[in-house]
Amino acid sequence: MSRPLTARVRLVQMEVLPGRPRENTVRILHEISAARAAGVELVAFPELAVPGYLIGDIWERPAFLRECEACGERIREASQGLVAAFGNVAVDWTRCNEDGRPRKYNALFFAADGAFHAPDGVPQPFVVKTLLPNYREFDESRHFFDLRKLALEAGVDARAWLRPVRVRDLAIGGLLCEDAWDADYTVTPLAELARHDADFFLNASCSPFTLNKNHKRNRVFDAQARAAGRPLLYVNCTGIQDIGKTVYTFDGESCIYDGSGHQTGELAPFEDGLVTADIPLRGGGAFGRDVTLADDETPSISAALLYGTGRFMQRLGVERIVVGASGGIDSAVAAALYARLLPPDRLLLLNMPSRFNSRTTIGLARELAVNLGCRYAELPIENSVSLTREEFAGLVVQGPGGAHIGLPLSPAALENVQARDRSGRVLAAAAAAFGGVFTCNANKSELTVGYTTLYGDLGGWLANLADLWKGQVYALARHLNDVVYDRPPIPAGCFTVTPSAELSLAQAVDEGKGDPLIYPYHDCLFRAWVERWQRATPEEIYTWYRDGVLEREIGYAGRVADLFPTARAFVADVERWWNAYQGLGVAKRIQAPPVLAVSRRAFGFDHREAQLGPQDTEAGAAVRRELLKK
Amino acid sequence: MSRPLTARVRLVQMEVLPGRPRENTVRILHEISAARAAGVELVAFPELAVPGYLIGDIWERPAFLRECEACGERIREASQGLVAAFGNVAVDWTRCNEDGRPRKYNALFFAADGAFHAPDGVPQPFVVKTLLPNYREFDESRHFFDLRKLALEAGVDARAWLRPVRVRDLAIGGLLCEDAWDADYTVTPLAELARHDADFFLNASCSPFTLNKNHKRNRVFDAQARAAGRPLLYVNCTGIQDIGKTVYTFDGESCIYDGSGHQTGELAPFEDGLVTADIPLRGGGAFGRDVTLADDETPSISAALLYGTGRFMQRLGVERIVVGASGGIDSAVAAALYARLLPPDRLLLLNMPSRFNSRTTIGLARELAVNLGCRYAELPIENSVSLTREEFAGLVVQGPGGAHIGLPLSPAALENVQARDRSGRVLAAAAAAFGGVFTCNANKSELTVGYTTLYGDLGGWLANLADLWKGQVYALARHLNDVVYDRPPIPAGCFTVTPSAELSLAQAVDEGKGDPLIYPYHDCLFRAWVERWQRATPEEIYTWYRDGVLEREIGYAGRVADLFPTARAFVADVERWWNAYQGLGVAKRIQAPPVLAVSRRAFGFDHREAQLGPQDTEAGAAVRRELLKK
């Protein structure tokens, strides 16, 4: 019998439920049946499709591991008449992980006709992930043993174990996610596999959405497929998975790189679906269509936020939402997002004015609620704030040296009292009475420098705008008005009113007074501190300023000299915000709600930080002195 | 010239300031001068003594790395006439880490006479850490490249690079912390070094305090020194270092294991100091004294809490403390701890009764303040809670289908309103007015199952009791009364009053009503879920119950049958708390304050978790069904 010229393959882009092996397995078994009925030869599922990926330290529970193994056995038994490739944890109960627990591998299993099939000459009946990422939110060395260590232990060169799996009529080069992102590693799995006549490569991934990552993946994977001259199948999951402080969306975008510069079958982001294709085996031809790339990031952000927020609500059983609506842009965007995810009677906007809130912003909050058709109420906080002020003024404090009367609250303390009164008192109680939760509308610019009140506007069940710089919030607001909604819900005044906390007379929006941040510039400055891969500090900022390249380095479109007439003013501003970022900002982030990740560096698990106080360097201090002498 | 028979060595147990290379270097240079003057041949400093260890992702800042390198150069230059061994980050700017950043090693440098000295035959002029821990709070693969990967890249067996450093007249086997905790690794650095006639071994560590860890280290290190037949010098730092959610103390406890079963020169925990000793070189004799171990854990806990809290106050510049004093044991212990760290006029106890608080507990809070001689005030929250209730009852809610009046608060909602009123309104404002911070007095039992209110009693600057089970809090209270203080400050009534939140009539302490937790039993149950190395789930709990071994497995001294008359009642209780632990408990911990670590598993960075909802296994469900059938 001669070898066929093509093989029908199917990629299953599915929502993987983290920590729910039984539910995921039911889905996998269903897709295997459907694939068999469709004459598919290989059906492929994402990395760790059985257990899920971001599940914290649940990997340390033997009971959970046993259940994942049992699920894998069920899939093995169901693999009659085709190849089912799926990600699962593989456990070697006889050997030790480096943490003293049973050894675990992040593994890709090839089940066919009731058996698991190993790569050529490899003792384990599965593909062991070679490259375990340990940056950003990735933390795989904590729980998994990699192929390099395994080979070292066996006295074998790891490269000798990078071989295709030969199963039924196919030779498949199996890879798991990072295995194909090998630029910074000394072992390059795909190149090794390519030496051994694989028909094609399969990369099973569990790869979180990051803004613009899809473009990069297309470049990297396409180049790899072309270098090998064979197709590369990429299957990724959808869904959301979180790691405490940070919630990640998974966009799928599974597709096939055909080995000649084309890409085919790309699925829509954030939707489950199947790619089915007849792949030419060795000696076959090419197929495909050109890749087109979208340049505007805002539609991606909008899609990720709607998807991630909706899925997180579903996961936690949240069906009613209270938004503290100030009339500003952040809460307006939050309300407009939630209004897409809930019937209007389950969304409550609450405006909570004190004496410092303008009729302007109260009117904008009301207009927003009318536009959205949702519930709306006003609960002034003046009485409560007055009560607190009076109670403290009359407090009798006993103690060393006798009693005294009064522990008066300063104007600054009273600003925070207002913010906490709104969230800690009103919104939390309103959420309980309404049968839901309340939102945190903080943006990334505020969160970076802690321009927010703990137990106040920093409270909430989820901070879904907290990975967006202020400028991105405005862009998202325009996108919601212009594209997502038929009739623009966000009032025009929200775009033009001065951004302000309205907690004192110094923040009166009708006089054009508001936040101390110059958002277009500070967004760029803060991004250099937080998101640059080689992270900048004041040392770099001062040096770039001295050398006249600051605008270019941080991507600021204006002129810094227009904002700060002197070097002294410039330095004072950098210091003020650096100290806030590294000082109280850290303390506030530690107690902040979970952040929905969008950027290449979200606060939370992907941005480890300690309460060390502001850092500087001697070299930075020297440039600073140089600037101040001018 | 003949080789001397002994060498004078000195271990410098110093507080390492995380992220402060210049300050640490000043201290190191000072100690080098002092050691030279004392005729010391080798002066040894802890692991990463220059940069600090738990500094989050500051490792990603090139400016910081350059500064650490410059500090290392200064130490090199100062190493005239002796050997200075110190931990620092080593950077190879020409090569890539696996995260695409400059490559970094956790390195031990041997500087002598102005030069760095490499181990025999090793190309790098420093010792590269071989074993990088990646469990608990350890996360070294995120930033550091290890000796195993480095050797693999060079095509060398890592063992060939485990050689002593020969410098001046000494041959020293250099190790960094985990290198000597090699039981679960395939490479065993000390055994390799021992093949190559080292005079002695030096283990430079940055090892956080964990309850009972010191006993284990004495066993492990002593056995290693005896197996090698040579002394092992152990130098560890003091101080505190935190990683966002979790604050670690470093106890030092540096000493010398002499190779014949004795230990010498052990320094007091949590204190800086020097061990100076004349070490016999090869052919020399032995010395030392027997190891004595303390069995009671409470003095250790007390010392770690006082040290860690005091240092954290110092670090963040906290000089005034407000404690919400309920009359219960937790806040009494918190107040008694802070009273050791502050002058009495800088400690303010605030009792905030509502209608549900008994005269009993108010009296206990007042008595505590009198005993401590600190400031004290009572601020009833009844007016504020009533105002909130009335405002919600009269709220006008507009919306789909017209306006309606009232968003009434249920009794359960009003319990949380009280808790948030106390912390989010009163304590936070009191802290601002008093010029300090307020404390979180939550214990680990409550935090495990989320028996606490977000923005309420779960607020605060630091949760320094949150790694203690309720039983440990009582033991600590007795220790404070009996040992730490001359006159017992904690009233006897705090020990006998029923633990209660006093938020409703159902929690009336004078009727013996209170918390729904049976602490002696639930402490043990929760510990099995949280702290067991192989973490238990309901599957194990049900199985042990069925098999009659539950009490032994979880260490409960009573009989479970006395608490739960039927299997049904037992199962219902396990489910209730498991669901709380895995459900809202996670959400609350995400926004909790930093926890001061004591146990082998503190909440926070050492206990990664996601909001997945309660987990179970099929096997667990089967045992559960079996139990319910009985």
Overview of the molecule:
In chain A, a hairpin with a 6-residue loop joins strand 19 (396-397) and strand 20 (404-405). In chain A, 37% of the residues lie in helices and 17% in strands. The N and C termini of chain A lie far apart (85 Å). Chain A has 630 residues and is of the alpha/beta class. In chain A, the strands form 5 sheets. In chain A, strands 1, 2, 3, 4, 5, 6 and 15 form a 7-stranded mixed β-sheet that branches. In chain A, strands 7-8-9-10-13-14 form a 6-stranded mixed β-sheet. Chain A has 3 domains: 6-281, 4-Layer Sandwich (Nitrilase/N-carbamoyl-D-aminoacid amidohydrolase), CATH 3.60.110; 296-377 and 424-512, 3-Layer(aba) Sandwich (Rossmann fold); 518-630, no CATH class. Chain A has 20 helices and 22 strands. Chains A and B meet through helix 2, helix 3, strand 11, strand 18 and helix 9 of A and helix 2, helix 3, strand 11, strand 18 and helix 9 of B.
